[in-house]
Specification:
Elements lengths: L2 E7 L3 H16 L2 E3 L8 E6 L4 H17 L5 E6 L7 H8 L5 E3 L7 H11 L3 E3 L21 E5 L1 E2 L10 H5 L3 E2 L2 H13 L4 E5 L7 E2 L2 E2 H8 L6 E5 L8 H9 L6 E3 L7 H6 L6 H14 L4 E8 L6 H14 L3 E6 L16 H25 L4 E10 L2 E6 L4 E5 L8 E10 L2 E7 L1
Helix pairs in contact: 8-10, 11-12
The chain binds S-adenosyl-L-homocysteine, iron/sulfur cluster (SF4) and FE3-S4 cluster (F3S).
S-adenosyl-L-homocysteine binds next to strand 15.
C-alpha cells in the first residue's frame, strides 16, 4: 500500500530547501507526497521562530492538525522553533499528540527517527545543542522549486545581531566543502535547472580552506546558460570585488539583496550591525557605478527598542534615497534570549504606525520604478506557464507576466515591458 507524507514549511528559503531534503528522506522510504493532511501517514511541520507571529502560527496549525490528521499517522515537528531552550518540552506538554520533535542539527536523521517510532511506538523529543557530525547533509533533496535549485553553501551565523534568534537556533558558521558545492551545481545544470540560488545566512563569510565566496562565484562562472543568485549578504562583509564580478559575470543575475535593517547609526550600533548608514550607502553606490540598473532589495525593521521618531525618519530617508525595487518590511518582534529583548521596548501602536508609513513610501517607490521600465526590453527566465500565460523574472529580478504559446518554462526570452500597474509588469515577447 502507498504511504503519503505532507510537509508544511514556515520561514526562509533555507527552511524551504531543508524541507526538500526531508522529502528526499521520506521518498527514499517509499512515501509519496500529498496536499491532503487527512490522507498523510507522516506529517512534518518544519518551523521558524524569527518573529513571534511565526511561532503562534505553528501552535495554531498544530491545534487544527490534531483533529484533521488520520489515526495512526506520525506527526513530526522540527526546525528553528523547537531548537530554542524549553520549547521542545513545552511543545510535548502542550501538544501531546506530536510524536517526534527534532531541532535543526539532527533533521538529517528524520528517516531513522520515523523508522524507530514505527518500530517501537515510543515518542521522541531530541534536540541537540550543536552539530555532532561533519557530514549532516542528509538525503538527496526532492526538489520542488521548478526551474530553480537551492544549494546550501554554509550553515549557521556568527553575527549575533541583537534582535535575532537565528545564531542561537542555527549554531556557528560552517561552510560546505567547495568541491561538493561545485559538483552539486554541475549535476543540477546537467539535469536542466536554469537557476541556482546559493544559500547561507551570510554568504559573504563563506570560507573553505583558502577559498572565499568570491572564489566560489568565479568557479561557478561558466559558458553554460543559467542564472546564479545567492542569499543573504551582510553589508559589513560585502566586498568591492563582488561589484566588479557582477559587471563581468555571464551568469550572475543583476540583482542584490542587501538587508540594511535600519537607517539610523545609533540603531545600527544597538543592533550590532557593524556598519554605518554612510558606509551602507557607499557600498550601494559602488555597485550602482558598475552595474547601473542593478535590482536592489532589502530587509528593514521598524520599532527596534529605543527607536525614536528621528531614528525612524532616517530609515525612511534611507529607503527613499536607495529606492529599492523590493523591500521586506518587519515590525521588530521580541525574541527571548536575545540582547534586544532586555532593552526598553516601544509600544505596539507606535510600531504599527511606523510600518504603515514605511509601506506607503515603498509602495510609491516600487510603482515609480516599475513605470520607468515601460518600453525597455529585458531577458526573462520563464518560470511558469499555464494556458499560454507566462511568468518570469528579468535579470534585474523584476517579475513580468506575458502571453505566449511559443515559449516554454525554462526558456530565456526577450520581453518588452508594455505596461506597469502598480508594481506589476506586463510584457510581450520580442524576437
Ligand atoms: N541572515 C539574514 C536573514 C535573517 S532573518 C540576514 O542577515 O539578512 C530575515 C530577516 O528577518 C532579517 O533580515 C530581519 O529583517 C528580520 N528579523 C530578524 N529578527 C527579527 C526580529 N526579532 N523581529 C523582526 N524581524 C526580524
Ligand atoms: Fe540574524 Fe544578523 Fe545573523 Fe542575519 S546576520 S541571521 S539578522 S544574526
Ligand atoms: Fe526562520 Fe530559522 Fe529561517 S528562524 S527565518 S526558518 S533560519
Amino acid at each position: 500500500m502507498n504511504k503519503f507524507y505532507h510537509i508544511h514549511t514556515y520561514g526562509c528559503q533555507m527552511n524551504v530547501h531543508e524541507s526538500e531534503k526531508l522529502a528526499g528522506a521520506l521518498r527514499d522510504r517509499g512515501y509519496a507526497s500529498t496536499d491532503d493532511v487527512a490522507a498523510a501517514d507522516t506529517i512534518v511541520m518544519n518551523t521558524c521562530c524569527v518573529r513571534g507571529t511565526a511561532e503562534s502560527k505553528v501552535y495554531g496549525h498544530l491545534g487544527r492538525l490534531k483533529s484533521q490528521k488520520k489515526r495512526g499517522s506520525v506527526l513530526v515537528v522540527c526546525g528553528c522553533m523547537t531548537q530554542q531552550p524549553n520549547v521542545a518540552n513545552e511543545l510535548a506538554k502542550r501538544c501531546p499528540f506530536v510524536d517526534i520533535v527534532l531541532g535543526t542539527f539532527n533533521q538529517y536523521l528524520l528517516g531513522e527517527y520515523i523508522d524507530n517510532f514505527l518500530h517501537t511506538g515510543v515518542k521522541t523529543v531530541d534536540v541537540w545543542e550543536s552539530q555532532r557530525d561533519e557530514n549532516c547533509e542528509g538525503a538527496a533533496p526532492y526538489r520542488t522549486s521548478g526551474i530553480n535549485a537551492w544549494v546550501n553553501i554554509m550553515y549557521g551565523c556568527n553575527n549575533f545581531c541583537t534582535y535575532c534568534i537565528v545564531p542561537y537556533v542555527r549554531g556557528r558558521e560552517r561552510s560546505r566543502p567547495i568541491y561538493d558545492i561545485l559538483g552539486e551545481v554541475d549535476d543540477l545544470l546537467k539535469s536542466g535547472y536554469k537557476q541556482i540560488t546559493l544559500l547561507g545566512q551570510n554568504v559573504n563569510s563563506y570560507a573553505y580552506k583558502d577559498k572565499r565566496f568570491i572564489d566560489l562565484l568565479r568557479m561557478l562562472d561558466c559558458d553554460r546558460k543559467y542564472r546564479l543568485k545567492f542569499m543573504t549578504s551582510h553589508p559589513k562583509d560585502i566586498s568591492p570585488e563582488l561589484a566588479s564580478l557582477y559587471a563581468q559575470s555571464k551568469v550572475l543575475g543583476k540583482s542584490l539583496h542587501l538587508p540594511v535593517q535600519a537607517g539610523s547609526d545609533r540603531i545600527l550600533e544597538a543592533m550590532n550591525r557593524h556598519y554605518t548608514r554612510d558606509e551602507y550607502l557607499d557600498k550601494i553606490a559602488a555597485f550602482r557605478a558598475l552595474v547601473p540598473d542593478i535590482g536592489l532589495s532589502s530587509d528593514v525593521m521598524v520599532g527596534f527598542p529605543t527607536e525614536t521618531e528621528d531614528d525612524f525618519m532616517q530609515t525612511l530617508d534611507l529607503v527613499e534615497r536607495v529606492r529599492y525595487n523590493n523591500l521586506f518590511m518587519f515590525i521588530y518582534s521580541r525574541r527571548s534570549g536575545t540582547p534586544a529583548d532586555k532593552m526598553e521596548q516601544l509600544d505596539y501602536k507606535t510600531k504599527q504606525a511606523r510600518i504603515d508609513r514605511l509601506i506607503k513610501a515603498q509602495f510609491e517607490i516600487s510603482k515609480s520604478l516599475a513605470s520607468e521600465t515601460v518600453g525597455n526590453t529585458y531577458e526573462v527566465l520563464v518560470s511558469d506557464k499555464t494556458d499560454g500565460h507566462c511568468y518570469g523574472k528579468t535579470q534585474y529580478d523584476a517579475a513580468v507576466s506575458f502571453d505566449s504559446d511559443a515559449v516554454e518554462v525554462g526558456d530565456f526570452v526577450n520581453v518588452k515591458i508594455i505596461s506597469a500597474k502598480n508594481a506589476n509588469l506586463r510584457g510581450e515577447v520580442v524576437l
